[in-house]
Amino acid sequence: MSDALVALLGLGARARSVVIGVAGVRARLQQGKLAAVVIASNASARTWEKVERLAVARGVPVLRGPAAERLGARLGRPPVQTVGVSDRALARGLMRIAEELRGDTDS
């Protein structure tokens, strides 16, 4: 997983443009306040099902992030399974990085 993606999430955390944790992400999704969601690559199947289903229903893109331990470390937290991004510009940047990563693996 790209260091750029994790670094961008770290900037978002410092700017208070992200919500961390499954409960917070689900609540913000229900309120329609998120522009993107990042789920840790090793998040539980239950977490994936609960968060991804709600995000898709709300039209919010879901990105596969790094392992929960790495995600949490970059955000100054213990392992983190989900991060919600409220800032639209930050969400666009994350999606651009994710698209570039997908393009790199296709070549």
List the helices and strands and how they pair.
Blueprint lengths: L2 H12 L3 E3 L1 H9 L5 E5 L4 H14 L3 E4 L2 H7 L7 E4 L2 H19 L1
Parallel strand pairs: 2-3
Antiparallel strand pairs: 1-4, 2-4
Helix pairs in contact: 1-5, 2-3
Q: Assign a percent range to the helix content.
A: 55-70%
Question: How far apart are the first and last residues' alpha carbons, in Å?
Answer: 17 Å
Number of structural units classed as domains: 1
* Oligomeric state of the chains present here: single chain
Describe the strand arrangement of the main beta sheet, using strand numbers: 1-4-2-3
CATH architecture: 2-Layer Sandwich
CATH 4th-level superfamily: Ribosomal protein L30/S12
**SS-based class:** alpha+beta
Q: How would you sum up the major sheet? A: 4 strands, mixed
Total of helices:
5
Give the CA-based shape: globular
The third-level CATH topology is 60s Ribosomal Protein L30, Chain: A
According to DSSP, the number of beta strands is 4
Mean pLDDT value: 91
Explain the overall architecture.
- Helices cover 57% and strands 15% of the residues.
- With 107 residues, it is α+β, with helices and mostly antiparallel strands.
- The protein has one domain (3-106): 2-Layer Sandwich (60s Ribosomal Protein L30, Chain: A).
- Strands 1-4-2-3 form a 4-stranded mixed beta sheet, with helices on both faces.
Top keywords for this entry?
single chain, 107 residues, alpha+beta, 60s Ribosomal Protein L30, Chain: A, 5 helices
